[in-house]
Write a structure and sequence with these properties.
Blueprint lengths: L6 E7 L2 E7 L42 E6 L2 E5 L1 H6 L5 H11 L2 E3 L4 H11 L1
Antiparallel strand pairs: 1-2, 3-4, 4-5
Length: 121
């Protein structure tokens, strides 16, 4: 498969425009990747998802996307919302989510109160 350019544009010199493409220096097949391993046993390490407020382990199927609007305060964004948005407008999709008021506080107390006041607007 031919490499795709990272950037495409034009270089304009007076009355002449020249198309330019910026391509990666190496192919993806030539890259070296490393895994995290336990130095004592040589076994591969896995990362674990942990809730930052409660400290509880979260299963990977319960993981989602959220846009931070305040401290421990997130707008939950569904995959369907991002897929429905035109290409390049993920930021606009987040703005639309903010308008609908689907604010989900990650913690208790002040964050929840701030979220309720944001929903009231």
């Amino acid at each position: 498969m031919a490499p795709r350019p990272h950037w495409k544009g034009y270089l304009k010199l007076s009355l002449v425009s020249c198309p330019i493409g910026l391509y990666p220096a190496i192919a993806a097949t030539e890259r070296i990747s490393f895994r995290q391993v336990n130095q004592e046993t040589g076994h591969r390490l896995r990362q674990q998802l942990v809730d930052s407020v409660t400290g509880e382990v979260v299963e990977s199927h319960k993981k989602g996307r959220g846009y931070e609007v305040g401290e421990n305060q997130f707008l939950i964004v569904q995959d369907e919302e991002l897929e429905a948005a035109p290409a390049g407008s993920a930021h606009e999709a987040l703005q639309r989510s903010a308008v609908t008021g689907r604010c989900r506080p990650a913690g208790r107390g002040g964050a929840a109160e701030a979220c309720r006041s944001a929903e009231a607007r």
